[in-house]
Design a protein that fits this description.
This protein is mostly helical and 274 residues long. Helices cover 66% and strands 5% of the residues. It folds into two domains: 144 residues, no CATH class; 123 residues, no CATH class. The chain is built from ten helices and four strands; from the N terminus they run αααββαααααββαα. It has a two-stranded antiparallel ribbon. It has a two-stranded antiparallel ribbon with strand order 3-4. It is elongated and about 80 Å long.
Length: 274
């Protein structure tokens, strides 16, 4: 068997081993229930991509080991399709994660969040479907993200809370927007807005633990902030996967050419023997 076939077999064996945890990670991410995981965008596709990589790796491994041109041809076709898919996902991920709805809150270590700063696609995913948002909202409330802030005993004076780096969901859902001018009592209790008409979310805020700012646009923006962070992390993984698949594809093309050459040589030798 040619050297490139051996390389292809080894690479695909490693890909074969790596696809199992990729698929398992996708399933695990889709089953999580933390506040940051309530908008499960692109979770099951990760598992599906892992399954596709598994099938492609099996075809490439078998084709390279047994020098089967048919399997190698299917492998190369599938690899080309996966590379195209990953490139499309990369473009989508970069476009979705480029814009940010975070903006500095004066005198605060945390940011406030607005829907207008995000891409229209992300806004439509979270805010464009009322039924989906109700599921996300219920998930955020059930996750206890805001309750954990209430139990934090380190916030003795307001300045300690103001200097805390809150997550997007904590900032958008667990407190009113800074522009409302509410006075701090505790992380989830605020009183007396100085400018009640400054933002539509000011009227939506409630000290009721079951309400808080879950009905605010800032809460939707906070969820989008978490999604944007996940997409930015996904960009790195997608980029590495794309480069690796292109490399494997190039080596696979070499193995396919070797398989064709060896097949022609065998036919030529067989013909000369007779």
């Amino acid at each position: 068997m040619a050297v490139s076939n051996n390389i292809t077999a080894c690479i695909n064996f490693l890909v074969l081993l790596c696809t199992i945890p990729i698929a398992a990670t996708g399933v695990w991410l889709a089953s999580r229930h933390g506040g940051a995981d309530c908008a499960r965008l692109a979770r099951w596709p990760v598992a599906a991509l892992g399954a596709l990589l598994l099938l492609v790796a099996l075809a490439g491994f078998a084709g390279a080991c047994w020098n089967r041109r048919g399997l190698l041809a299917c492998y190369l076709f599938a690899m080309a399709a996966l590379v195209a898919l990953l490139l499309a996902l990369l473009v989508l991920a970069f476009a979705a994660a480029h814009a940010s709805g975070a903006y500095p809150a004066p005198g605060r270590a945390y940011d406030d969040y607005r829907l207008g700063g995000y891409s229209s696609w992300l806004r439509a995913y979270v805010a464009g479907d009322p039924a989906r948002w109700e599921r996300i909202r219920a998930c955020v409330e059930a996750s206890g993200t805001c309750g954990k802030l209430t139990m934090d005993t380190s916030f003795i004076v307001p300045e300690q809370f103001y200097m805390t780096h809150l997550s997007p969901i904590q900032s958008g859902c667990c407190k009113p927007p800074t522009v409302c001018g509410f006075a701090y009592v505790s992380p989830t209790v605020w009183t007396g807005p100085a400018s009640p008409a400054a933002d539509a979310d000011c009227a939506a805020w409630s000290n009721d633990p079951a309400q808080l700012c879950y009905g605010c646009a800032s809460c939707k923006a906070g969820v989008l902030g978490e999604l944007r962070g996940q997409w930015r992390k996904a960009n790195v993984a997608l980029l590495v996967a794309t480069v690796a698949l292109i490399f494997v594809y190039v080596v696979g093309c070499s193995a396919f050419r070797n398989a064709q050459t060896e097949d022609l040589f065998r036919r030529y030798k067989w013909g000369n023997n007779y």
